[in-house]
Specification:
This protein has about 90 residues and is an alpha+beta fold. It is about 30% helix and about 55% strand.
């Protein structure tokens, strides 16, 4: 009986630690601001790497997901943000 419990515990520990590994989130963020005839675009990249992370928890805690948003202010300035991320 003790052997079965020890084997089950070893399997559980192995499975729970095997999905924890170094994770990297690589993002490209594009911000476009348009006001009448003027359009300004800025691009930058963001890269975050952490050890011993589970994929889902890392993605949520670091905001590693694609996101597109558009806002328009009262003076007709439109801001569009495109966040394209990849979990490596």
């Amino acid at each position: 009986m003790k052997k079965i419990i020890l084997i089950a515990a070893a399997i559980t520990i192995t499975v729970s630690t095997s999905c924890r590994k170094e994770r990297t989130c690589d993002c490209e963020i594009t911000t476009t601001v348009s006001s009448g005839t003027t359009i300004t675009t800025k691009k930058y990249t963001k890269k975050i790497t952490k050890d011993k992370q589970k994929a889902k928890q890392f993605r949520i805690s670091e905001g590693c997901y694609n996101l597109n948003s558009t806002t328009t202010s009262t003076d007709n300035v439109t801001t569009t943000v495109e966040n394209e991320c990849e979990l490596i």
